[in-house]
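Re: the multi-chain job from yesterday

Posting the exact lines I submitted so nobody has to dig through the queue logs.
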Amino acid sequence: MSTSEMEQHPAHSLAFVTDEEHGIRVPVTEIALDDSPSGEANRPLRVYRTSGPGSDPVVGLPPFRAAWIAERGDTEAYDGRERNLLDDGRSAVRRGAASEEWKGAKPVPLRAKRGQRVTQMHYARHGLVTPEMRFVALRENCDVELVRSEVAAGRAIIPSNINHPESEPMIIGKAFLVKINANIGNSAVTSSITEEVDKLQWATKWGADTVMDLSTGDDIHTTREWIVRNSPVPIGTVPIYQALEKVNGDAAKLTWDVFRDTVIEQCEQGVDYMTIHAGVLLRYVPLTADRVTGIVSRGGSIMAGWCLAHHQENFLYTHFDELCEIFAQYDVAFSLGDGLRPGSTADANDAAQFAELDTLAELTKRAWQYDVQVMVEGPGHIPFHLVRENVERQQELCDGAPFYTLGPLVTDVAPGYDHITSAIGATEIARYGTAMLCYVTPKEHLGLPDKDDVKTGVITYKIAAHAADLAKGHPGAHERDDALSRARFEFRWRDQFSLSLDPATAEAFHDETLPAEPAKTAHFCSMCGPKFCSMRISQDIRNEFGSKEAQEAIAGMASKSEEFIASGGKVYLPETISVGSPEPSAP
Amino acid sequence: MSTSEMEQHPAHSLAFVTDEEHGIRVPVTEIALDDSPSGEANRPLRVYRTSGPGSDPVVGLPPFRAAWIAERGDTEAYDGRERNLLDDGRSAVRRGAASEEWKGAKPVPLRAKRGQRVTQMHYARHGLVTPEMRFVALRENCDVELVRSEVAAGRAIIPSNINHPESEPMIIGKAFLVKINANIGNSAVTSSITEEVDKLQWATKWGADTVMDLSTGDDIHTTREWIVRNSPVPIGTVPIYQALEKVNGDAAKLTWDVFRDTVIEQCEQGVDYMTIHAGVLLRYVPLTADRVTGIVSRGGSIMAGWCLAHHQENFLYTHFDELCEIFAQYDVAFSLGDGLRPGSTADANDAAQFAELDTLAELTKRAWQYDVQVMVEGPGHIPFHLVRENVERQQELCDGAPFYTLGPLVTDVAPGYDHITSAIGATEIARYGTAMLCYVTPKEHLGLPDKDDVKTGVITYKIAAHAADLAKGHPGAHERDDALSRARFEFRWRDQFSLSLDPATAEAFHDETLPAEPAKTAHFCSMCGPKFCSMRISQDIRNEFGSKEAQEAIAGMASKSEEFIASGGKVYLPETISVGSPEPSAP
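And the result, structure tokens for all chains:
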């Protein structure tokens, strides 16, 4: 991607919030502001930053968490699983290599020492405050004990695979800022490794808190290596996708061994959370037969296909405890997949969806027995009035485990605009406690997102997440809104741009109507023109009533208005009311 | 505009729903659908159509309501007000003409005969069912008595100036489909008459139910003439904008006489509803002094400026009954402007806003005494959790008069994306009873919308309005969603496109990934690729369980699952649970 595209806005700079005592530095974006017309200086605003320190794709990021992990002394390096070219698909086997092998440093995989658990939940439950928790507390501007206790209770997770030391700790839980995920990944049909790394950096530049690599084509292993080594945010995957590639796309050929091997492969690479469709039980499959859109989750239908082919229970369910034991050794978090989520508003909140949720609740509690962090995935397509029930039911059944939803879309009639149909549902579901929102791009249902779609999806979801933070009264959430509103009121156009989620677009739109540089400082805008300006009149009002005489003036008005009301509150003679009024008045 | 742009989608055609008995034909858009893969035919879907019969801009539309109006025998033609070049601004006076005089037929203005009232509310209250009401009932697919009674009660309006016989009757009220308005209009800074007519046709093509002409530059009168003569939807204006032009932009110079003359001018042209900022009372102005963004409504600040300059009560309030008498003679509806609406989430639901609402409620009831139709305007910028209170308070205070809101925007941080920030609030406020939503385009706060912005704004608001209709359980609202979902499930790509709000965009997005024509009928999509397809597996499930053997099969499953549960619902040996599990389990 061109550097100019990745360059940050001139008014934005990298700053750090630091915890000297524990030697922790959290990067934030500092937005410089102009002085007010009054001459009053405006302090710069610091905002949450997801883009990390920036990396050269072929080198990757520094493993800054490595020291923290080593200090705990509960992990060991080991040879790890042997590289298998089939991990990158049949064409890699033919070629004897992936199409673009990872050339950067190959970290030696770590795992928990025998009998140990290395999850943040494990530490939290034992009262240990980790550097990861301190990092999160600084980042969220909250007490570290809130972080520890929410993680211990399972109401929040800090996805942080010990083999992804490049990632900056972040927390997903309803007591914290609402997070968003961006999906990237190649497919059998299209796209390349560099494009995917590009999308990763692009997504985190605009505010993605986590990124899921949903690759389904060739070079899955190597694409993921490039992504993980370059990612400052947690990486999620759906391992069944790669497992399916290993059995040539035939769901019936899937086995626990192939799946387990794939999970180990991804644990060693550093995947932070994995979607596991263990709630798609054999007996739930028939419940989808009469749906308008059946099963639309790819993972869900893979497992349903497997269950039907073998008439056996879902092997992800029957082997769930083994998965817990594996995840506990790397601190991989479960993202319990909703394989039976509705694919249309017609199928919302139906028996299949809620039956699966009951099972996800059971599995949540089982994972907690292993100190494994868990979030639960949610839909999908839900009409607006049925959205709230989804999060309230999940929170109750799953004892507050973080909810992670895709939208939901509140109507099916707008393909091409599903970032919008879903942002409406996402704001509603986040308002009532959903902790992370998976973005939807304009290409949803139609094709694979390109870079513009990724940006549009991320910014649309930042809007939904932030609107929910405001609605929840999250401390400090309104600061950016208020700073931008003050800039708008004072015609500090440059500050309006730099405070906005997408400064370049805001400035470009402004310039389409008023390109001239002076217009950026002019005390009028294109809606009203130079001759008249509503903001100017408001300034006059403030000058008149915001001053120290304000109180007298307002008092004067008030008394005038009391006289007025005393006089009957009418400036009309009664007869004017009846003029030409032969008809009865309003019923 | 190029005809290709205005051409309708090949699968869309103009059809009519007719009431033979009363000779009424309501145009609808019929969407032809392909057969299902099963061979089953899919009946075409008929959807609400706002674009009218189509017109040649220089000729205008046929005055099809003229006969209905004449038959009532309560109106008279008259000379009308004399044309004054100043109506088109000083440059027109210099030139001796507007820049593009209207060349089409100039209808002779009508008004009510002396002592008569010609409003739909007047007829409804007297138990008369007008052709306008029958047209609306067909259009909404509801009982005409519901239309009459809601209009009689003031809970719905049918904006239909007797001097705009070209318009197709539509209804605004919470018992009916949620409507959307698109704002167009030139400004002192930019744009031309033909551009505005272009935008009108463009907005109604995409689904605008009404259009407001907010012109503030030159040629206001003539621009409006072109718009009204070509508009199949009701036209709204804010007459104070033109009045301000007539006094050279100096709010202090405004007088009741200038305003009254402007209102008559617009009544005679055929404006269907007018925004009147009569609720901005002198004593409320100081309440805005301490706001973050003061007064942002242009009309509100004009009147506030006038009140302060003269230290007198708002002349729109003091002359309100005269306005009612005028509106009753033409059937112009009030859109009571919320001049003190908040311009930032920080100012939401404050004393100034709610004080004005109290006055709007008083004025609503006074207008009803004259049988004048009324809707009440609402904000603006409101955090998500405070949105609902706005509509519930307005509905209670105003005895159910239709609420007409701008958004509201649920955050201030996304200039350039305010169509989205506001669609979120719009869906919420419409869900609880707002009858019409004023669109917000991506250019809001930044500049004037161009054609693309108008389209984006309209489609975004169709989404919000439709999502609210679904949430309200409006009869039939889900039909389009279900038809599209079925098409999606059956891989009827062409039907997915033609059923969507923006078929061309949906198809273009699809083709970016899979351009080949065969792909449109291929039983896979780009997300999964040809090798694996979740929808196909769902089809297999349906074939297996949707069949007549389904019940046995499902029953079989269920019994299996009961055994399974009976056996303790575990497929694990107890000890596997405790393995490596020295720690306490979840608290």
